[in-house]
Amino acid sequence: MKDRIYFNNGWEFSPSFNEKMLDSKYKGKFEQVRIPHSVCETPFNGFDESEYQKLSIYRKFFKTEKEWAGKKILLTIEGAAHQCDVFLNGKFLARHSCGYTAFTVDLTDSLLPAGRNNLLALKLDSRESLNIPPFGFVIDYMTYGGIYRDVYLDIKNPIYIEDIFIKTKASHFETEITLNSSDAEGYSIVQRVESSSSVVAQINTGVPGNKILTAADAQPVHPWTLEQPVLYNLVTELINPKGKIADKKNVRFGFREIKFDETGFYLNGKKIKLRGLNRHQSYPYVGYAMPKNIQKEDADILKLELGVNYVRTSHYPQSKYFIERCDELGILVFTEFPGWQHIGDDAWKAQALENEDEMISQYRNHPSVFMWGVRINESKDDDEFYKATNFLAHKTDSTRPTGGVRCIKNSNLLEDVYTYNDFSHSGKNAGSLDKIKVTKSHGGYLVTEHSGHMFPTKSFDTEQRRTEHAIRHATVLDSVAGHDDCAGSSGWCAFDYNTHKEFGSGDRICYHGVMDMFRNPKLAAAVYKSQEDFTGDFIEVNSNMSIGEYNEGLLGDLWIFTNADSVKLFVNNTFIKEFKASDSPFKNLAHGPILVDDIIGNRLIDEEGISAKNSEKIKELIFAIKKFGQNSLSAKYKLEAAKLFAMRVISKEKLIALFGKYISNWGGESSSYKFEAIKNGKTVKTLVKSMCKNASLKTQVSRTILIEEETYDVAEVHLRAEDENGNLQSFIQEAVLAEAEGAIEIIGPQAVSLKGGMSGIYVKTTGTAGRGTLKITDWQGKETKISFTVKIKR
Ligand code: GAL
């Protein structure tokens, strides 16, 4: 007999609720749905938050199995947004009032006799008028609605293990085991810690009551590090008086120690600068309702594509699949209880404490989680409330520090770490504030947000704006890297997200991501990606070098983003200059963006016969014209020019002609810019920028083997308009048509437009094994077919 049965399939759903629907004899119509599910599908943008605010109902019939006799039948719902009333066979059993934590309901006593069909009904309230966090004021993200994470039944013996908490220190560990009953006389506990290849610790102990504490040293163990996040499995067996296994629980964990102090953050004694981003858990069309593999892919994107070592799950606990993948990949997670700026009345606060308790007890075995957020994001000081949230956090988990994200300086620090949203950078000033200007407190300090609304940037914005977006992120990262007393930062934010009417660009999107909603990278993503080697050899350049994209035809600054040691620039195959990583103006970053200060090199000498000395002077003037325009030169450059004209080094006409030839190239043959990224003396990547002649659609799919296990599986297809050299064509916004056949279907519309040259299509399995084909037709009528294999493993 299976001891866990996933309950994600075979649900009836009605987007409106009526008491009669709780009755199994109710004959009305329902939609057939699978979980994760959203109470409504929404368009990409331009819709109202009232769409998902409703009372709805989910119903599922299931048979009481003969084998369940004498067992405990426990229902767990991992995520129901936002208030869920559980009814079994018409009887109310429980209410849960947090859309972001799991809850378990004991169904045993209300089940019908073996062989009979039960009706499980979940009445769901997804209205934002609920008096629970995060509601009560405005919110800068959509809160959606739905049973959007897994639902399952656990079949247990009458005495079972309710919870295990494992705490580690170097190679030592302690566990707190909680049984559902104190009536376990004669029972015992057997524990093993398994590595991938051996057993590294064993414990045998009696059961004194419903709480059992165990401790041991494990040998040999490898610590959980960012580079090698080694995980162990703690197997705990509850043995009954007859010597049989009554219950068994596996907990995956890592050996690691964390510390914050006024000098920064330490993992296993090693100082680490946290470089991260904030993540919202929403997706186009389905809001929160995405299954396991898509959740995991977000962690993959953060670590393997963006190279970050830290994520803040703003502003609520997120899918355990996402967190598990962070454990596996070595990403540190700062998770916080739900809330946004507003603190409600006593009932609201009591619910917040409950949410906090659930968050900590549900996530505390994850090695990736390094701190609890126990303040409502950006709320005012409320000492009484926050003393309570801190007390609760330390009581429930003595191993992790608390933080509390605020936007106010010198607020009362009741947490261990001062976590501050530093939006001080406005493009021209320093990237971040000195800690002393924010708090006089001792102890750790972390910048939990920056950028975001200070510079919303769409993937279809001008090149200049996209460049500034990237450079602002680099400026903050560089500044934080230069402050030893700042543990790091998480930028706002990883992905664009749908939001309420009070926020965003008027279309219900906050374009604050370094990636768009489909997880396509904007230029700012290149700043993050270039900081690490493990993201693969990488080079990106901000500009297509098209004068028409700039006011007065004055090309903006040219920046290189790379993790290489140096980059050689060639214009029309003529070598111009080699730029070293150390030339970057961002001195605190190992791989700060490099400003290309010369695109002429020796060409004036070689091609125009100008002397070396004069070439430098003329180049300086040409670059000044490029930057300011010939009519807006400063007095300094005007004087320089006048001198050269007077000394007959060059005439005004010739200077303008050289500018035309070597920079603006107006009406001339288009130039080609080649960038060779060099690592350890070898060219590892080449990037060519020249005028696009015939853009085409490129597709990239996250996975083509889709597996239904707990529920349906989803893969993402990324769409990108590229020129002949593989460069993104940001201003192609054409339509792309998608058609699914066989064992897959499309989530959302069948026609999508490219936005900033990019878009995405999600395909979903349908419950049948076999082949599925996605046919994509681009704006030129060209077809691409992607084949998927769907396997069912249940
Ligand atoms: C912060 C807030 C975030 C987001 C961000 C936009 O104040 O905590 O949720 O709204 O601003 O920059």
| Biggest sheet strand line-up | 29-28-27-26-25-24-23-30
Distance between the termini: 13 Å
The CATH C-level name of the largest domain is: Alpha Beta
CATH architecture of the largest domain: Alpha-Beta Barrel
Number of distinct helices: 11
Uncertain residue segments = none
Output the CATH homologous superfamily of the largest domain.
Glycosidases
Question: How much helix is in the residues?
Answer: 10-25%
CATH topology heading of the largest domain: TIM Barrel
Class from helix and strand fractions: alpha+beta
Mean pLDDT: 97
Protein name: Beta-galactosidase
Domain Glycoside hydrolase family 2 catalytic: 261-530
Domain Glycosyl hydrolases family 2 sugar binding: 45-153
Domain Glycoside hydrolase family 2 immunoglobulin-like beta-sandwich: 160-256
